[in-house]
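seq/struct pair 1
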Amino acid sequence: IEKGTELKYESIYFKHTVKKIEQRINIKPPNTVKVYNSDSPVSTIEEDHNKLVIILGNEGPKLAYDYDTDTYEYLTGVTGESDHGMSAVYDSESDRVLLFTHQGVNGAFDYNTSTWTTDITMPNLSEYGMAAAYDSESDRSIILTTQGPKIAYDYNTNSYENINLPGTLGNEQLSAAYDVESDRIIIISYQGHDLAYDYNSDSFEYL
């Protein structure tokens, strides 16, 4: 949807899409699975195998969902969890699902070998709103918190750098996505400013 499109059209399209999806998929775990802290789930697409990796909150199950077969599998070895915020991205260059948490374990999951590593170098992240998106052109994970660090993480070198964004991004809720065409991270905040961030120039503009 291009900038300037009426919100009414966007809303109708979104509801129609959700309705169609709900008619087909069934990824609810069995009733025997207890989900802890279910208000903190995260998910991301593992593009190499076209799997939706879902982490259902603190201590909850970790799943990989296959849309084509409408089936899911349990992922073993993923121990990353947090009592508060979590965000996940798929690093396509390294073929890893990266999980970033507040007061928890930051790690990388390799779907091919079903292995989880926890050697990610990361500052203490804010306990408030948290979001992340992967910039595929720059091969960086952009990690945002509403009132804490804003950083770009490089998995290959296991290093991060602070980026140029306002110190406060809204109140609690935060969302981010990478726009391939414009090569920008689009940031949507609750009770704050919506932004477009360019990693190459380390600059942003208000939307």
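seq/struct pair 2
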Amino acid sequence: IIWVKAQIKTVKNFYPSKWLLSMQPSDAFFQVDVFDETGKALYRDLKADTLEAAQVKLPLEANRVYTVIIHCARSNFIAFRLTDWAYREGQLQTKEFDTGLFFGALGILLIYNLFIFISVREISFVYYSFYLGGMVTVLGIIGGIFPLNQILTTIGLFTTVGFLLFTHSLLELKYRFPRIGSSFYIFSSVGALLAVLAAFPAYLPFI
């Protein structure tokens, strides 16, 4: 356990705003104190708000010297980065927009295929909608949108089953290649069984 002291110097033409001080790895820090030239504390007692980096929001002004004192648990690797908070907020908003656009497009495609099924009564569109729904859910869980981590394996397996059934129906394997079509049914049945078992924690280690 050591104390690390660093200084942030801003120049005359420095843009005064809120800046984000990020430090990695986040689990190496116990306490962070930031002081200005007069000794006034700008920040005390760090609380990490992300898994990737410990972050502190600082109101910095031009032509000043700020002192950062860090009480850290290890010193083999410590990285610091200072980022404009407004720029970071813009990045987050852009990411949220892109994410919403992506999931919105998949949702529209899912609904569109369901409407096609209602019109033509072709079962392959149901399988494809089932596959899209599972894919949206899996990507949402991985991206932290849906808090369903405990059943991620189950949803992933059901998504795979939907893809197999869709492929089987679209290529008409039952009529063109009966043996291959039968194997698709077997794989789909096994996948569905594993998906149900994966919902129970006792069976999850064996899957």
